Amino acid sequence: MILDSAAYPAPAKLNLFLHVVGRRPDGYHLLQTVFRFLDFGDSLEIESRADGEIRLHSALPGVPEQHDLCWRAATLLREHTGCRLGADLRLVKRLPLGGGLGGGSSDAASVLLVLNRQWKLDLPRSELQTLGLRLGADVPVFVFGRSAFAEGVGEVLRAWTPAPASYVVLTPPAQVSTPAVFAHAGLTRNTPAVTIAALSDGFGHNDLQPVARALHPPVAEYLDWLKTMGDARMTGSGACVFAAFPDRATAERVFAARPGHMSGFVADGVDQHPLHGYAD
User: Fold this and answer.
1) What pTM was computed for the model?
2) Domain count, the chain
């Protein structure tokens, strides 16, 4: 029996910069970054069920159901709360896998937010963020729901709003392994930490970018072209690259000028998640 049904957004994110400032004793890297959402991403149809089953109707190629972040998010929320309801989950995937745009993390966060409301659980945002961290380091920012300065492994979040911008995002034909980038001997791991007061638009760089460039020539190619148009950077551990422009018309002109074999999209920066109101 279906109790509720609707399509919900799962927006992409950009890391406007990403510094590796150290390493914890357990091997996890300490980061500083600014996250910003985009008005482009995946979408999910989420239908609450009375029979307690979690059903995934849009399996990703090569990803077993028990590893799918949408299924894992719904299952984790049900187990954490003891809820007896279930859900049907259907994902429309627009964001590339291994692209650094946070697609899987965003999908998982939207599942947590929507089912928190549909199942009438009323968990506070902070508790959902803690749950989200068990699914992945980028999940908490999507639950937090605002552009943010992040520290730790990405889970210590404070709201910070960049200037309005439109972005050209290019999607190189490469699937970057985040563990491989972080394990690489050439990765810079000692960029000096900064305070939130030091942030400004255009600040910083991405410490993972040189490694991803070296491992994946398409990333280097797309970056080199986009750098002829603006301050091009990689997001996350790649492969996607982006540049900010002051308005949509300028971004559209730059995107139209790209070489014909380069794929991507244009999107505006968004400083509040469209599902922000689904948690207090």
Assistant:
1) 0.95
2) 1
